[in-house]
Structure to design on (951 residues):
């Protein structure tokens, strides 16, 4: 706004100055147009591009807690479809090389830092769980689908405690651990999770603790309430309970992730959330782990103060309805295949068919065990594009193939060994089920790579070395989900960063990387458009790489992939 | 003048250029701009409205006043009114409702219920109800009663009742009930004689005791796609003013649901038999007689179209599920009323068929729309419950 106002002022000044000089009418109109054009064409790359950390330059002083209503969110997303009405726009928070900088939602891990199975197994954990000693119940969780407590340990740390449903030992708790580890590896902020045992005699009710049992008024919690809550949980033969401890996230809770618009009280939050790539790409990761409950209420926005400044960090939480678990029982067949409310057209077709238009989830074979719940036995034909969370959101609706590609690239960097390490942390106690679950997650990952990597031009990692050799990778063929392209074509341009104008110099072709840069005029920046010759149609749409000359050669400063 | 112009241009451009020397600066400028325009994060007006609606006692089961919609009495049309709910410990509650129907029938009822006693194995409730049902239909006893011979009466019972249910094991329910029911009826211009319409135009008082044993393994009685329900009830209706209308009643009911293709299809069957045995020299009063013809019995026939001392009903449904919230059904009803159980004859059964849609939640039926056809023509059904 400030910039626009300044330019308008400048245009006015020039026009008035020209008038004062007695210039002809068309010359001052032209002068104004040039200035406005310069405003639109501000230089494309800045010296600090690409940035890898999202700036949070403002102190968030006045964020207040706002707990959105789940029913309203459901209704809003079902009927009103909030957020930007213009679909198909490129994500607006990517840096100039088409990546998401580290920030309040996301930290680049898979594909950017050297992950190992051990690192994925540890994920966000920093300790070993609640401190020993009596655990004081400060709140009873009687609402929601699963019973639970909030406890304070002897180190004054708050923990959320959740259980498995009776007869499904390890299903909900184990699934939550696995999903949390893998979401962390993908790059999202998650809480610390630990599997443990809870002995009822170790619990103490705080004098101020309240509970609101279903159908009753809120009242002080008593010992019978503990027994009632534990009665809805799976109990081990020795009278203890397997539980998952979730460490309270640092900072002060101020709400949940919203998937459209920005937070009104966060000055650092300037990109509408439906245009944040990591929130669009969340769809792909949620589909991967069948996290059907990927909605705002299963997240947390916390106001964190570090070094005297406050900012908001957003966490993903509550993965009890992921993989084969629906938290209170095994996953229902429809979950992941249909939204909470099906498409009206589909309902009509099924109504008219006397029921013989049968959805696939009613007929496919399932693997079911008390340890992991229920999952389709075969994922080789699973289509991640047809996956449905319970409730979709604006970010998911704005998702484009390049967002999916970005997410798939993260998954390509998560190995089967890392998946097995995460599954082992679930401590399911059933080797066959663990083996199946790890394979299912790997198979779903493969289907995501097969589906989303070839959907756009999959050229990645362009490098122009000091000898003028341009190397790059084809992510789809590298992941063995597509054949190699027969060849590549490179269009070489000089690029004027101030006018954002490219001038074609030469076209070269080659059968593989690297390709050799032709003789180029002296230029600080060059642009190379790279496309496949042959291969899928989407691969013939070029990606654009921008290099800036440096003392030793060329540095990648820009990369664009259009679907 | 030209140097002056250049100076102006340079001075004007300088701040903008300085503000955008880096990407971080550019973003910082936008964040600083927003910092001057901060608002309060909170619910929109629409969300506030939705919250108000969702927090109403009708939807939350919370305390307070709530709107009520339902049936005042079978055959009196849709009704509406207001209720008040007050909850107590152990899931017990006090609930009062008052409503009026389209045909001006009225009801007031109050219930105190404790459904979770003795670790949920014991349920108790106490009820009081005042009813003023207008224009209740009666066509005379028998399956061959004429539609043209419809009589109408106003029915005014007051009922004080209590029920105690014990759940000795999973799925098993044993219920004992007692009701004190003084009632009177009134006809404006009688069509049927007192002999043809026993009990009408009299003030009667019943002491009704009932024992029921049931086995219910449906996931939820309000809506389910599998499981079964089997019930036997035995009832003693003693008329205490000395008038000849005391009788015993037995009722047997079977509901069976067979899901197919992971509940894509459900074959459902329902059988209901009600038998009465009047004391010697007594008869069953019209108001308490078994009947057929309603949204849940013979659906193509008017309310209480057939009544007699005994009845038998069979229903079969082919249901399919286009949505998890919408079921469709093709159905067939067949039933008969008879003065004597030995007169039941399948060749005498009245039969109807139809198609319907049911809008439901996971464990309740919200709305049932059906159209059915029998020998007396088409009939639409709008109901809030499952047919069985």
């Amino acid at each position: 706004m400030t910039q626009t106002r300044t330019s308008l002022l400048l245009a006015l000044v020039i026009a008035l100055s020209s008038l004062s000089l007695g210039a002809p009418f068309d010359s001052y109109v032209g002068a104004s147009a040039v200035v406005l054009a310069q405003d639109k064409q501000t230089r494309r790359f800045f010296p600090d591009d690409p940035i890898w950390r999202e700036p949070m330059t403002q102190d968030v002083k006045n964020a207040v807690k706002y707990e959105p209503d789940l029913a309203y969110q459901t209704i809003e997303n079902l009927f009103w479809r909030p957020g930007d009405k213009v679909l198909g726009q490129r994500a607006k928070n990517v840096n100039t090389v088409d990546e998401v900088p580290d920030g309040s939602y996301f930290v680049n891990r898979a594909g950017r830092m050297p992950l190992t199975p051990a690192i994925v197994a540890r994920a966000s954990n920093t300790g070993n769980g609640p401190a020993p000693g009596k655990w004081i119940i400060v709140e009873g969780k009687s609402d929601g689908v699963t019973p639970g407590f909030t406890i304070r340990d002897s180190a004054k740390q708050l923990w959320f405690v959740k259980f498995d449903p009776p007869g499904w030992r390890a299903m909900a708790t184990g699934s939550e651990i696995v999903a949390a580890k893998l979401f962390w590896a993908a790059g999202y902020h998650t809480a610390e999770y630990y599997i443990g045992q809870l002995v009822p005699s170790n619990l103490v009710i705080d004098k101020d603790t309240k509970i609101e049992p279903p159908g009753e008024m809120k009242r002080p919690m008593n010992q019978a309430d503990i027994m009632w809550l534990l009665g809805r949980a799976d109990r081990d033969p020795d009278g203890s309970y397997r539980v998952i401890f979730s460490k309270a996230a640092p900072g002060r809770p101020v709400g949940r992730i919203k998937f459209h618009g920005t937070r009104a009280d966060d000055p650092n939050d300037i990109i509408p959330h439906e245009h944040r790539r990591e929130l669009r790409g969340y769809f792909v990761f949620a589909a991967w782990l069948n996290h059907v409950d990927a909605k705002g209420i299963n997240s947390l926005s916390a106001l964190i103060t570090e070094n005297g400044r406050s900012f908001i960090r957003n966490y993903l939480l509550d993965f009890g309805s992921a993989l084969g678990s629906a938290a209170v029982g095994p996953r229902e067949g429809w979950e992941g295949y249909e939204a909470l409310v099906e498409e009206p057209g589909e309902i009509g077709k099924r109504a008219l068919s006397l029921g013989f238009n049968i959805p696939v989830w009613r007929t496919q074979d399932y693997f079911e065990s008390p340890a992991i719940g229920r999952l389709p036995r075969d994922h080789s034909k699973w289509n991640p594009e047809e996956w449905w969370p319970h409730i979709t959101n604006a970010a998911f609706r704005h998702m484009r193939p390049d967002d999916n590609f970005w997410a798939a690239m993260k998954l390509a960097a998560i190995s089967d060994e890392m998946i097995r390490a995460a599954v082992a942390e679930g401590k399911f106690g059933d080797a066959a089920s663990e083996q199946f679950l790890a394979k299912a997650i790997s198979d779903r990952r493969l289907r995501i790579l097969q589906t989303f990597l070839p959907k756009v031009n999959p050229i990645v990692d362009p490098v122009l070395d000091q000898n003028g050799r341009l190397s790059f990778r084809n992510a789809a063929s590298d992941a063995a989900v597509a054949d190699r392209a027969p060849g590549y074509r490179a269009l070489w341009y000089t690029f004027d960063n101030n006018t954002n104008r490219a001038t074609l110099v030469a076209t070269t072709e080659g059968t593989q990387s690297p390709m050799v840069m032709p003789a180029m005029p002296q230029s600080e920046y060059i642009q190379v458009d790279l496309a496949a010759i042959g291969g899928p149609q989407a691969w013939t749409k070029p990606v654009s790489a921008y290099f800036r000359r440096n003392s030793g050669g060329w540095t990648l400063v820009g990369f664009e992939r259009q679907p | 003048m030209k140097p002056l112009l250049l100076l102006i241009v340079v001075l004007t451009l300088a701040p903008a250029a300085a503000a955008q020397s880096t990407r971080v600066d550019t973003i910082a400028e936008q964040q600083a701009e927003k910092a001057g325009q901060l608002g309060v994060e909170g619910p929109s007006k629409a969300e506030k409205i939705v919250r108000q609606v969702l927090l109403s006692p009708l939807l939350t089961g919370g305390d307070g006043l709530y709107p009520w919609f339902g049936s005042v009495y079978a055959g009196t049309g849709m009704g509406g009114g207001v209720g008040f709910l007050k909850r107590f410990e152990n899931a017990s509650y006090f609930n009062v409702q008052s409503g009026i129907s389209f045909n001006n029938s009225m009801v007031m009822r109050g219930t105190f219920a404790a459904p979770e006693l003795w670790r949920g194995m014991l349920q108790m409730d106490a009820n009081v109800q005042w009813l003023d049902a207008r224009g209740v239909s009666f066509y005379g006893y028998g399956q061959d009663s004429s539609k043209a011979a419809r009589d109408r009466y106003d029915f005014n019972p007051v009922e004080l009742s209590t029920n105690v249910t014990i759940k000795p094991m999973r799925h098993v329910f044993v219920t004992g009930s007692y009701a004190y029911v003084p009632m009177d009826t009134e006809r404006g211009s009688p069509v049927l004689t007192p002999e043809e319409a026993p009990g009408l135009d009299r003030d009667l008082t019943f002491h009704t005791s009932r024992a029921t044993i049931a086995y219910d393994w449906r996931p939820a009685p309000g809506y389910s796609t599998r499981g079964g329900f089997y019930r036997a009830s035995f009832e003693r209706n003693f008329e205490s003013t000395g008038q000849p209308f005391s009788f015993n009643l037995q009722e047997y009911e079977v509901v069976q649901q067979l899901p197919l293709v992971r509940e894509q299809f459900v074959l459902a069957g329902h059988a209901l038999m009600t038998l009465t045995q009047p004391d010697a020299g007594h008869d069953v009063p019209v108001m308490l007689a078994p009947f057929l013809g309603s949204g849940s019995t013979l659906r193509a026939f008017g309310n209480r179209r057939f009544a007699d001392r005994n009845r038998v009903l069979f229903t079969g449904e082919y249901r399919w599920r286009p949505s998890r919230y919408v079921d469709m059904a093709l159905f067939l009803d067949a039933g008969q009323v008879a003065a004597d159980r030995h007169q039941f004859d399948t060749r005498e059964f009245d039969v109807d068929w139809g198609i319907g849609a049911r809008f439901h939640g996971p464990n309740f039926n919200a709305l049932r729309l059906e159209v059915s056809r029998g020998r007396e023509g088409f009939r639409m059904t709008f109901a809030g419950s499952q047919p069985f």
In short: DSSP finds four helices and 18 strands in chain B. Chain B touches chain A through 60 residues (CB under 8 Å). Residues 1-19 of chain B have pLDDT under 50 and may be disordered.
